[in-house]
Amino acid sequence: MEAEANSGSLEDSWAFIQRPGEGCRTVPLAGHVGFDSLPDQLVNKSVSQGFCFNILCVGETGLGKSTLMDTLFNTKFEGEPATHTQPGVQLRSNTYDLQESNVGLKLTIVSTVGFGDQINKEDSYKPIVEFIDAQFEAYLQEELKIRRVLHAYHDSRIHACLYFIAPTGHSLKSLDLVTMKKLDSKVNIIPIIAKSDAISKSELTKFKIKITSELVSNGVQIYQFPTDDESVAEINGTMNAHLPFAVIGSTEELKIGNKMMKARQYPWGTVQVENEAHCDFVKLREMLIRVNMEDLREQTHSRHYELYRRCKLEEMGFQDTDPDSKPFSLQETYEAKRNEFLGELQKKEEEMRQMFVQRVKEKEAELKEAEKELHEKFDRLKKLHQDEKKKLEDKKKSLDDEVNAFKQRKTAAELLQSQSSQAGGSQTLKRDKEKKNNPWLCTE
Ligand code: GDP
């Protein structure tokens, strides 16, 4: 009773404690305080920490991925051209430190190698999906650590995926549709028509419309440049209508008029990379680097990573609410999971014990059966042995009898022989005597 009364009064007292943000009032300041420098502080801190940006280039070998990256960042990134003989799709990742004014950028360029080169392209998207997930997983693991060093952590999550479409002028290949569909919930996809100098102006207009309608009808979500920020809403809105950008890449500088310009020279003329009448390269650079780089980073964290994190934690059994929609804290989830785990462990232990007992019983029965069989075999052998022994004894007895009878017969025969030899001896003597007396007597 006392405890109940106490808990009641405690709850009442909680009701009077104001939570942060509740009943917040606006008060005027009498003079300058200085917290209006916070945005500058933030900028300074970010600049001193540096930035990182990760681009994934997906597209068939030879579509101009490396050339476009060199053109976009106005440098020559090293890297050997890929062959068309890869057994499967791989991803090649390179990180570079770039500096512009006082801003440092750690740029990672990940490129597909061997994409579209296999006869069976069914699983071509898998290595790409796995790579993106692996970067999310690495970040999640860092976040879940007890001692986190996120500020020093090299964030390798992909911020933008440039999807290179071949300038066929027809429709999207099924490989492109499947891959983009698999990627759209994991990364900001910016589709681009590569090597667009290979397609005529009228064909290009039709091709863009066709691609857009195919993406919509297949439910592929591509990255939309944000229009919620007033300062960029107009330009972003206009640029969204230009997607997919038709680009040309070249690091070759040609003299056009008085200026050196990036261009590709053909026997019939020159195509200028940075001429908006020739291609959308400038639009792409503007949107990707100069206007929306931060939004791409932000979307990656707040949308794609958040989705990955949520699914992963739910998969692990973590939830924000219990089945009755009441808030469920991490601690409670942990306890529930621990109890569930211990329960399962006990169940498993019991099952194993039962199995062990059952196995012992089975083994015992098996041994008993074997013992019984051995006894039976022993008895059988013993009887067989006895019968054999008896037979041998009988045989011995009959042989002994035979030997005795033989001995008796032998003795009798010997006796008879000696008697007859004695009788034969006395007759010969008598005959010899008669011969002496009468030499003419014939004895034979
Ligand atoms: P990757 O395999 O996708 O990285 O392709 P590369 O950047 O190595 O380019 C392959 C070939 O295409 C090279 O000879 C490039 O000069 C050429 N190339 C690159 N971009 C363009 C382009 O916009 N138009 C044309 N016509 N050729 C290009």
From TrEMBL:
Localization terms from the record: Cell projection; Cytoplasm, Cytoskeleton
Annotated Low complexity bias: 417-427
Keyword tags: Cell projection, Coiled coil, Cytoplasm, Cytoskeleton, GTP-binding, Nucleotide-binding
Gene Ontology molecular function: any one: GTP binding
Region (Disordered) location: 413-444
Primary location: other
Gene Ontology CC terms, in alphabetical order: cell projection; cytoskeleton
Coiled coil ranges: 331-409
Septin-type G domain mapped to chain residues: 49-315
PROSITE patterns: G_SEPTIN (PS51719)
Transmembrane segments: none
The keyword DNA repair is annotated on this UniProt entry: no
Keyword presence, Nucleotide-binding: yes
Functional note: Filament-forming cytoskeletal GTPase.
Summary of subunit composition and partner proteins: Septins polymerize into heterooligomeric protein complexes that form filaments.
Family, per entry: Belongs to the TRAFAC class TrmE-Era-EngA-EngB-Septin-like GTPase superfamily. Septin GTPase family.
PANTHER family: SEPTIN (PTHR18884)
Protein name per the record: Septin
Organism: Panthera pardus
Gene name, Swiss-Prot/TrEMBL: SEPTIN6
